[in-house]
Structures are given as C-alpha cells and as structure tokens.
Amino acid sequence: MRRINIDTQLLRSFVAVADAGGFARAADQLNMTQPTMSQQMRRLEEMLGQPLFRRDGRRSVLTPQGELVLGYARRIIDLNDKIPVRLAGETEREVIHLGMPEHFSETLLPLLMAAVHERYPNVQLVIKVGRSQTLAAALDEGRLHLAITLDEHDRTNTAPLHVAPMAWFGSPDMSLPDEGAGEIPLVLFSAPCGLRTLVIRTLEQAARPWRCMHEGEELSALRAAVQVRIGVTALPAFQIYPGIQALDAPGSLPRLPEVAVSLRTRRGWRSRTAPDLERLVIEVWNAFRTTAPPVPAAPERTAAWLMA
Question: Is the pTM for the entire model greater than 0.85?
C-alpha cells in the first residue's frame, strides 16, 4: 500500500466542513474563501482515493468513508496540537543530577525523591549511586549538581550534615582471632575507596595484621560476604544494615575514626526552579536521622531481628 503524507490543514478543513455541515460555513470559520475550501476537499479526496462528502439538499454530509476518516482526523489534529503544549511544559522542567553513596539508596533516597516530587513537581531528579570519591569527581567535572558524600571527619573541608562513628560489622556468630593470634579477615570495597583506605590505615597504625578475603563494588555484595562469615567490614554506624550486626567490644579490633556526611554543590550552580533544594535535602536528612532505627547494642541483637 502506498504511503501518503496528509497535510494537517486539509484535515482541519475537513473536520470544519463535517461540523458545519457545509463548505461555505466552514470557509467562514477558517477565514478562507469557499473555492479554496472546495479545492482543499478535492485534494484530500484525491489523496485518499475516496469520496468523503455527498450532497443532501443544501447540506454536505459525510459518506461512510468520510465518517471513518473523521475519527482519525480529529485524533491526528489533537495529537498535533498537543506537541507544542507539551514542549512548552517540558521547557519549564529542570533536570537535576544528584549523587549519593549506596549506603542511603534504600533508606534516604525514597524519602528524598518523594519530598522533591511533592515540593518541586517541575524538577526531575536523576540519581547517581556511587562511591564518595567518584561522586566528588563527577561534581568537580560538572556531571552532578549535588552530591551527598561520606568522608573521614578529620579530613573533610566541608561543614557536615552529620558526624557518625564507624563500627566493625560482622555476622552474629562470627569469631575473630585474638590479638597476635592471626590476621583479621576483611571484606572491603574495591579500591579506590575512602572507607577501604580508612580501615586499612587504622589496622596498620594499630599494628594488626589483616588479609582482604573479599572485595566488591556494591554494598549488597559486601553484606552477603559478611553474612556467610568470610570476614568483617567497617561501615558508618548510623543505620541498620540487614543481615549483619555491629560488633560490641570487638576484641582486639582498633577503634575506627568518625565519618562525616556532607552535602556538596557544584561550584557556581543554583537551581532555576528549586532555589531551596539544598535546604530541602537537609530537611529530609534531619527527618531521616530522627526516624531511622538506631543500631542497637550487640547483646540485644539477633540476625532475625536485623532482617525484619
């Protein structure tokens, strides 16, 4: 079947004639002469190869083929007219790229997305989940507008949203060698990683021998390795990590430094449609911190409770 491209102006004229019941009335409505209207309808009938109107006294009525075409013509015109309206609406939308560590992807992220959608419906968030070092580099390179990062507290130049202790995490029935009795089995993020560097430096400064038993890119994989007692890991102690527990008085393991949660903004950037977006992120973070269940003391924990 041959393909034809139908001019929407012909379809508008066709719908006008059908609605007005005659060429003259339709021509008046569209500010054109009757001969021009008649010529347009002849062109449309020639393109389609079907008669679209028949005379009924002084009126022009649709043929069966015309009735079929009328439904399509209305839909085509409606879609055509919606395009500029939709584009005009899209130009008002602002796409904002936000980065955050995987630690928050199942807890803070849903709260933040819901809050932004409610307060700023014309903002579309694009989320980048990654390590803090990667997010900081993306921010500097202009690929992110905002980023929530985790950094060692003593080594950050940004005023933090929150300062939290680091804790050693393991399986509920994990046993560790006593000091001087063997290497500490570790489960770590792959390098480069700020938390990995922090853990290794802490053990080296304490003269504790260690061995990396498993390393991975994602927090979920690290949790799985800890659950099956491959080793222990270190994480910020401000939320529960399903399946693993913070070790209470973890024997000879050294005390870990504190970490800072910071909100960073790309230099010189200000949101066009959400001027208070940074404040909203801080509000959501504060709400998250006050409602998140605390990491309980180890004697009160069970694996089943953590998985709840």
Answer: no
